[in-house]
Amino acid sequence: NAGVTQTPKFRILKIGQSMTLQCTQDMNHNYMYWYRQDPGMGLKLIYYSVGAGITDKGEVPNGYNVSRSTTEDFPLRLELAAPSQTSVYFCASSRGQGNSGNTIYFGEGSWLTVV
Amino acid sequence: KQEVTQIPAALSVPEGENLVLNCSFTDSAIYNLQWFRQDPGKGLTSLLLIQSSQREQTSGRLNASLDKSSGRSTLYIAASQPGDSATYLCAVLSNSGYALNFGKGTSLLVTP
User: Fold this and answer.
1) Mean pLDDT, each 10-residue run in order, chain B (112 residues)
2) At residue B83, what are phi and psi to the nearest 5 degrees?
3) Which of B32, B51, B99 has the CB atom closest to A45's CB atom?
């Protein structure tokens, strides 16, 4: 039972490069999320999706793009990487919205450094 | 905008002590509040989820309370063990949002 799987775990990017963080879940969850966590800070929401084909911006979406073509996958794309995007990225999923008591499951994180 | 604050930022206790972690939030219109554990280099693991209509939840040595009107929650850990050493994060789901708002966490060290 894999849960939420993120790849890669570690990546170093040069300024201006682009890359995609992959996220897949095998729990048939409708809701998926991307968060970033900077040192000593709480998690901040980048983008979220309530189902295939539907995405919306979170608190810090600038510099990122997402797509949700299937229920399982929710990739996060970084265009023109900047040092400010150095962070740990977490993907998460839940069956439904939190008001019905759905537990949220997190991946193990992707450490990204932009130099 | 929902703001979540956790106090203290760091805590060190000897093994066996009971301890309390605090979480406060600015907007009481919430669906639920969750406590997570984060180990170094790992993702977050959900410990307890309290619905807005509930006052507390218990799991083993953990007890979380919620006072929605005052915007406070506490996580009580009984008889702490070195294996409890981790960062504990509090997060709330507001009525107006789809995703959780997180505090910065409390880093707990339990010494043998």
Assistant:
1) 92 96 94 92 89 93 96 97 96 81 95 96
2) -70, -10
3) B99
